Amino acid sequence: MASLTAVASMLEKGRSPRPAAPERRDPGRRVGQQTLVFRTRPRIVAAAAVAGPKEGQGPLGAYWDRTYRDRLLGERSWERAERRMCLDAAVLALEKAGLEPADIDLLLAGDLMNQLTCANFTAAELDIPFLGLFAACATWAASLGLAAMATDAGYATRVLCTTSSHHDTAERQYRFPTELGNQRPATSQWTATGAAAAVLAAAGTPLPQGWESANGPAGASPQGSESGSGGKAGQPAAGRPGSAPRGPGAGGRPRRAVAVTHATFGRVIDMGLTDPFDMGSAMAPAAADTIRQHLQDTGRRPGDYDLIVTGDLARYGHQLLVELLREQGYDAEGVLADCGLMLYDASQGVYAGGSGTACSGMVTAGYLLRRMEQGDLRRVLLVCTGCLHSTTTYKQGDTLPTVAHAVALEVDDAAAAGRAGDGGNGSPAAGVRPGGRGGDPA
């Protein structure tokens, strides 16, 4: 790769205002060059995350709604196991929201399998109007941003977003048969086994009981019941973070609704890298490009967010992102975190860290949203990163095109509290330091 300064200069290309751009009919819905503003603040009314056994043993293991004891889940193939995880996450999110599939206007879902087969089978089970999405590991942010667009514009009242990945299905499709036990370089990453789901609702839609928004506690109480299996396998459900989807939060406090306020959809960045075992380094320039564009469009600084969380850059990509942002004039090291570094402990043998479409989805649905609902975090920029190659293209010697999509998540009373620009007082949970984790090379 070229020097960091050269990379930063290349990312500057094409960033001057486009003189021929047509005048926008409703400029309030868009700021700068790439950022959409959701003025009605669509809310995430429920979310769920389910995890494989390795993810259940990680630092966030207590936050999952369900942890499976093995990677097959009793199914006859890993592909079927992933489909079951995706369906379980969707059903759990619907139950938390007190909704049935018939209450959802649109399902947005994606995964890493060819032809999005996991998402397709899940959609067939749920029987909801469906759009399959592929942005590799950036699919989760793409779905949240598109769901916010649909609900903000009035095209949908409620949208369900799901994503999933499985270590063994990804290995079989993208790399080598797992039975071979091929050695990997230190820069490789471990595809997360799990799934996530979230329900977005238009403004004015009743919140589940025990939640509050900028307009005060919810007055409506949708019907529904919690699935009883939550949390890490082998532990009692009561008292664990993953087992309290509705009702008051920690200490009897009302749970705060989280709104999706902005989306910055990234452009495809290809720096000429060809090593599929170093995707973190390949995706870091895309993350830097989208983060910088979001900050320029909104006039915000990194400190205006409690956290800026990338999807799966892992150890080497995360370090590169810090340097690239610094080259572009942004010192974000104090607020930068990466889901691939938060998902696993250094002792778990996951090389540079986690990856996969479920990686950012699980951390968001299981951990970040819960911390926001409890008031520990108030404004988070989620930047999911995706490597868009296929096994055919990289075996033919082609480069790795990448993309990063960002959505801004804010506690629904953040604007009313007038805290814009104050940098926030939230911090990651104890033991989950931004950028501070990563698996040792095996």
UniProtKB/TrEMBL annotation:
Among Pfam families, the record links this protein to: SpoVAD (PF07451)
Which molecular function terms from Gene Ontology are attached?
acyltransferase activity
Q: Where is the composition biased (Low complexity)?
A: 234-247
Q: Name the segments for region: Disordered.
A: 1-31, 207-256, 418-442
Q: SUPFAM superfamilies given for it?
A: Thiolase-like
Question: Transmembrane ranges?
Answer: none
Q: What is this protein called?
A: Stage V sporulation protein AD
Under the heading InterPro entries, the entry gives: SpoVAD, SpoVAD_sf, Thiolase-like
Native organism: Thermaerobacter marianensis (strain ATCC 700841 / DSM 12885 / JCM 10246 / 7p75a)
Q: Where is the composition biased (Gly residues)?
A: 433-442
